[in-house]
Amino acid sequence: MPFSVKGTLLLKEDHRSLEKAAQIIKSGGLVAFPTETVYGLGAAANNAAAVARIYRAKGRPPDNPLIVHLSDCDQLKSVARNIPDKAFDLASCFWPGPLSIVLTRNEKIPALVSAGLPSVAVRMPDHQSALELIHLSGVPIAAPSANLSGRPSPTNYRHVLEDLTGRIEAVIKSTPCKVGVESTVLDLTREQPVILRPGGVSKEQLEKILGENILIAELEKQNGTPLSPGMKYRHYSPEARLILITGLASMRFTVIKILAAYYLKLGFKVGYLNTSLQGSLKCNASPEQLASTLYDSMRRMDQQGIDIILAEEISPAGLGLAVMNRLKKAATRILHVG
Ligand code: TXA
Ligand code: MG
Predict the structure, then answer these.
(1) Which is the closest atom of ligand 1 to the Cα of 179?
(2) Which residue segments constitute the domains of the chain, with CATH numbers given?
(3) Which residues of the chain have pLDDT under 50?
């Protein structure tokens, strides 16, 4: 018998356990599963009632659409229609992998999956258990990140249990997610491709394949409305107040030192992310290392009762753009120096 806490099963990654997980998906249940980016909270994408339960379990705003996960490119046609050649070019280069492509939604996919939008985001995760689960379920799986809405995304099964125990049928126990930040969301339904959310595949990598410039939605707005529903929420937030220090590199360290001394003197517990001061992340870490530890560091600092997190900016090249996007969204204050 698999281990269960408050009705949530903790499943292993062997074939029998994944069959059990697939059975749960087929019968309209919710299963949290590992991917290479973060854990997903999955339901059968063609089952509107099951998809509605995802929104409830996470406390997710009803206007924030989900990503549909495939195990096979052949499933793409059952999820999207009028698929441009660009989508196939990108899929053949980056799938399985951390790229979600926004396409025109096929009517077979309930509108609820896309929060009523005529489009749908699709990706194929680069994780053996995720691929096997989707395959055994026999349907594409709709899945947002498996956290309570507003909390940092889960990068290991313990994070999922912290947030969703008793709210979902099962969690698959795997090793920590490799990439650590979510997939890149690329919208191909517009005249020019737009990155709605930077993630595991960089702008540079995408531009190389498409041979054209890609816009970044953070920098674009249409009549003051964000281009993607997800952009308007303050995501990825630890409970602590996070102050992001940007600007002149030579001055950032001095400012961080002054701020740390000030808050410590006031009796606050101070934590550090990517700073040259003490802390779990050092400023000479690569963007890949930062990405893979970012959410776990935020959750740990919350558990330690840290009041203030001081974080230093990193270069937006490659995966750095995704890390900076998450830091800006988590920040209660951005302090620009120099
Ligand atoms: O790496 C990932 O993408 C993870 C794993 C589980 O696959 N999933 C994930 O899902 O991060 P979620 O729901 O936390 O984020 C999905 C993002 C949101 O910002 C949402 O607004 C955007 O994708 N999105 C989904 N469908 C969209 C659509 N049709 N049009 C525009 N944006 C969409
Ligand atoms: Mg999320």
Answers:
(1) 1
(2) 3-181 (3.90.870.10), 241-337 (3.40.50.11030)
(3) 279-281
